[in-house]
Amino acid sequence: MEKLIRMFPLLLVLLLCPNFAFAGHDYGQALSKSLLFFEAQRSGYLPHNQRVTWRAHSGLQDGKASGVDLVGGYYDAGDNVKFGLPMAFTVTMMSWSIIEYGKQMAASGELGHAMEAVKWGTDYFIKAHPQANVLYGEVGDGNTDHYCWQRPEDMTTDRHAYKVDPSNPGSDLAGETAAAMAAASIVFRRSNPAYAGELLRHAYQLFDFADKYRGKYDSSITVAQKYYRSISGYNDELLWAAAWLYQASNNQYYLDYLGRNGDSMGGTGWSMTEFGWDVKYAGVQTLVAKFLMQGKSGHHAPVFERYQQKAETFMCSCLGKSSRNVQKTPGGLIFRQRWNNMQFVTSASFLATVYSDYLASSGRNLRCSSGNVPPAELLSLAKSQVDYLLGDNPRATSYMVGYGSNFPQRVHHRGSSIVSIKVNPSFVSCRGGYATWFSSKRSDPNLLTGALVGGPDAYDDFADERDNYEQTEPATYNNAPLIGILARLGGGHGGYNQLLPGIVIIILALCPSR
After folding, report:
1. Span 27-491: which CATH code?
2. Positive or negative torsion for Cα 154, 407, 345, 35
3. CB 490, CB 104: distance < 8 Å
4. Concatenated DSSP letters of 206-242
5. pLDDT of the residue at 511
6. Strand, coil or helix: 400
7. Residue 295, number of CB atoms within 10 A of its CB
8. DSSP state of 394
9. Keyword Signal, does the record have it (predicted)?
10. What's CA 315's distance to the chain center, in Å?
11. 221 φ, ψ (degrees, to nearest 5)
């Protein structure tokens, strides 16, 4: 009761003032910095408007040995491998952030940058999908890459390209890439309809490929097993892709797929306490709950209600109001695992944010075992997690590089830890990089602005050391859900009904890069 009384002023403001934007942290600045991080992760030929100027062209021969152009895309984290599964999830979550909160991004002048970040990924996926049933899912391999500590511009490591096809399937990889292409097609529907159509065509083909030729991608691309093993299998990605294809196309086939396969593929069965690049069930359940609240379920309503029950179980577990709750640190941070825990913080907080708005738009409360919970509590949870990672924590540390006055200085990241090739073009050798740069106790010579590192342990402790990869390595999929939450917290709700068809209507030309 005491906790409810303490929260009441915030809940009252949220309920009475839908345009309310949170004060305290500068969410707009954090959003701008978060988007800069994606430019630091770019592979390929960098554009003339590249804002992270210590980076240069890299990976320019990618795919050549296999007779395919795989130049471009993103390095996922602190190494120089292009891993397809987390890259696709990153693009899906960036797209979802724009679909829900593009208006707020536009108001802060960041929509153009966000759309450019999505397109950098989808341009690569188009190249990586040269035939209907062929998808390249990795360039380089973690073993040889991790043996070396080199900036991407100096890479001497193996750049072998790995693919999935009918003989060596990868339903999880193809399904997630289909989801990314479908979600991105919504982002570009108004500003670039031809491109949006091209993305949707790839998404259709990739879904059919994933569904027809079933198999886990890491059984085909075995070099990925040590780094991005698909623990959850591929059923969650097939449902996830179907949900995004329905949202992008309004094609009844994909809604029927969700209704027909919800029980057998685990969509209505799994009660989750995590959401991330591997396990998509909570995301699927949230999207299907949205379709249900939009009145689109038709005769699938009983099945979709079971999806929604699982979505709400996830939300309640994040709030600590379920029979099985997520773990939190003494300082209040959602905690799943020691290695890059922050990915689960931002992904769960994003789902809480959008579901809060879905509920508010439908005029209903969250149903937990402890009773009904107003939607504002979900948004308050997301705010508490974002505020923690921006510095409101027992260490008073910002886990976003470049935000605040106390942030990680020795990030586990090859590019940021080695002097820029533009400052000193002298070649950095494979092992020489470890001796000279990795082992250095000095701060990074290049500021990896906006990077969200792995974060603290279960007791809120953190060691700012370059070899502490579990805590100091950043990742693109940490930032992707975060941009949506930051846009929502900084820009408010704007009286926008989250259940009405939402399309980004701001044309890139109207949002020039600043």
Report:
1. 1.50.10.10
2. negative
3. yes
4. HHHHHHHS---HHHHSGGGHHHH--SS-SHHHHHHHH
5. 37
6. strand
7. 10
8. T
9. yes
10. 18
11. -100, 80
At which residue do the structure tokens 């989801």 appear?
179
Specify the 3-state DSSP secondary structure of 371.
strand
> What's the confidence (pLDDT) of residue 6?
33
In sequence order, the 6+-apart residues with CB closer than 8 A to the CB of 270 are 236, 281, 310
CA distance 405 to 50: 25
Choose the catalytic residue: 39, 172, 377, 473. Answer: 473
Question: CB neighbours of 424 closer than 8 A, spacing ≥ 6?
Answer: none
The pLDDT of residue 497: 80
What pLDDT is stored for residue 507 in this prediction? 36
pLDDT (0 to 100) of residue 492: 83
Catalytic residue among 305, 387, 464, 470: 464
Burial class (CB in 10 A: 0-12, 13-18, 19+), 167: exposed
Write the DSSP assignment of 246-303 as a string of letters. HHHH--HHHHHHHHHHTTTTTTTT---S--SSS--HHHHHHHHHHHHHTT--GGGHHH
Q: How far apart are CA 379 and CA 489, in angstroms?
A: 9
| pTM given for the model | 0.93
Element housing 317 (H / E): helix 301-319
Q: What dihedral do alpha carbons 24, 26, 28, 33 form, nearest 10°? A: -140
Return the structure tokens found at 496.
């926008």
pLDDT at residue number 500: 75
Cβ neighbours of residue 128 closer than 8 Å, sequence gap 6 or more: 70, 73, 84, 135, 136, 137, 177
Distances (CA, A) of 461 to 46, 327, 381, 391, 392: 37, 16, 21, 13, 14
Q: Are 181 and 122 in contact (CB under 8 A)?
A: yes
Burial class (CB in 10 A: 0-12, 13-18, 19+), 384: middle
Q: Could you tell me the sign of the dihedral formed by the alpha carbons of 337, 461, 490, 122, in that order?
A: negative
**Domains of the chain: which residue ranges?**
27-491
Q: Which of 25, 113, 202, 412 is the catalytic position?
A: 412
Report the chain (514 residues): mean pLDDT per 10 consecutive residues: 34 37 81 98 98 98 97 98 98 98 97 98 98 98 94 95 98 98 98 98 98 98 95 97 98 98 95 94 98 97 98 97 95 97 98 98 95 97 98 98 97 98 97 96 98 98 98 98 98 77 43 33
Rg (CA), the chain: 22
Query: Is 473 annotated in the active site?
Result: yes
CA angle 173, 72, 108 (to 5 degrees): 90
The residue type found at 361 is S
